[in-house]
Write a structure and sequence with these properties.
Residues 1-25 are annotated as: Disordered. This protein has helices spanning 28-51, 57-63, 74-97, 99-118, 123-151, 154-185, 188-209, 225-236, 238-268, 275-300, 302-328, 334-360, 367-390, 398-420. It has 425 residues and is an all-alpha fold.
Amino acid sequence: MTPPLRGTDVSTGAPARPAGPGPVEPPEAQVRFAFIAMMSAMIAINAFAADMVIPGLGVIADHFALQDPNSRQWVIYASFLGMAVSQLLIGPLSDSLGRRPAAFTGLAVFGLGCILAGVAQDFETLLAGRVLQGLGSGGLRVLAYAILRDRVAGDEMARSSSLISIGFLILIFIAPMAGQLVIMLSDWRGLFAWLLIQSGLTALWLARALPETLPPERRRPLAIRPMVRAMRVVAATPATLACAGALAATLGSLATYIATAEQIFNGIYGLGALMPLAFGALALAEGGAAFFNSRAVKRIGALRMARIGLIGWVFGGSIAAAVFALGFDGVPPLWLFMLWNAGSLAMFALLFGNLNAVAMAPMGDMAGSASSVLAFMSTAGGALLAAGAGAAFDGTVVPLAASFAVSGAVGLGALTYAQRRGAFA
């Protein structure tokens, strides 16, 4: 049996009363807050690894004298590729060894990536370090939700997941600001020193406060066969495969935006130290749309909400690309670009969770393995698509707007094709 939250009565879920003399257990609300904070700290590694380096991309490009200014984008894509691989590895590893050993393994891999990137003497070594960072941080995010699933269920899990998701959005807002501050106080290598310290402090906290949530009797032997079987099932299920394609397309546009954000906000608009504020403000738009989606999806349905998001990308991206190119020579006023981008990121909030929900519906008891396969396919595919789209950056925002339009069309086409084959009946 999975142990309940400390300080909680097993049968009622109410705060436990001390049976006799001894230390008084902390209130249930305090225990819950500490647990959510600890899970958020694990996910923070993932958020900071992805977004904290954005303000430093220009400095990194200058330091390594990159001939192609778009090559700096690979600092982001390399992390995404590492995250993709982690989706396949961390589930079986944590199911076999337990959550704590898997968490410390992820932190160790991430720390090694920080060291390698921080001491890199060439750009290729830096990218290798970023792959390791993605491999470690992506696994930690998956583990945080696995630990949450071990400890709570039902409405409490939904509530805790929502709190962690809100925390993740806040961290996306904070991470570039922290990166900008580090750049101002040191140089780009300081970014990886910060991330190394952050991972070390997180490891100390987990070592002190995180119990093992997967008892030995519930662990499974480490095996590759279940993952291979899940891949076959996903490939043979039109609804899931269509959603995987749509997710890869949408994540590709999101990764393109993240990778080109420094070139857009600094290179085009010259925001400098204000760049993280603009980036973070747009993340808040995504958070607001996610809240709206949580209220509307029960009434409208996940598939219809995803279609709305994709249609919004097709029309919004197409109109924006045309207006930006014909009316502003590819460089619209900052307020207009921000307005369009806020709408696009809001549509992403309607896409990601809903496409995942529709994709997982047919998976039944294979949901865990299938979820890992789906995450690998969408993240790796998205990173590779983003690399192609980002290479088209030409000093204007037209390629970014066009990438959103194309991604929306690809995703909409995949869903429509699957629906005509009766996949969503």
